[in-house]
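To: structure desk
From: M.T.
Subject: fold request, one chain
Message: Could you run this one when you get a chance? Sequence is below, nothing fancy, just the single chain.
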Amino acid sequence: MSTLDLHVHRWEPATEQGASTLLLLHGTGGDEHDLVPLAHLVAPGAAILSVRGNVLEQGAPRFFRRLREGVFDLEDLRRRTADLGDFVAAAGARYRFVPESLYALGFSNGANVAASLLLTRPKALAGGVLIRAMVPFEPTETPDLTGRVVLMSQGRSDPLIPAAGAERLAALLRDAGAEVELAWQPGGHGLTQGDVSVARRWFGERTASPRPR
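Reply: Done. Structure tokens follow.
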């Protein structure tokens, strides 16, 4: 099995020259098709690499195991994040994109694994949009996320992620050198039009062309 076979995935080439690539990471129960319509709304013309999680929780795909709601299996998270990083590198070689133009677009469980990827492999992504994310783990060493840009879009009344948890993740990323925007939506854990609007504006500002290094 090649590294590219680590994940079932969907690839759509960019329709605009010089456009960025979006790494789509679904929430629990989603698949590689789930966030494609959202990607088309927030970053028209971008290339899309949409990935299906390899863990099943009562038949629902996820990117890593959890012991219960809000409590992650950290050993599984570590292994699955490493596999995802290896897959992304292989996909870059196959589909001809570079980390400097690769942005995650993750929701819930997908946002959490994107945060884990940023914290463990800082050079794998240019940044991303994390919708309803929480701290995946507390790093023992601060990574260098200088030059990375992150939008977090959180629900004010989210029953699964307290505001303090979202603010802690934003602080971890900022302490590592990332430029972080934390946007609050009036809803709960589900996607809202506010998430679409803020992500579209953010991508429009950040990814009109690859950011210089």
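Reply (cont.): The CA atoms of residues 171 and 180 lie 9 Å apart. Let me know if you need anything else for the meeting.
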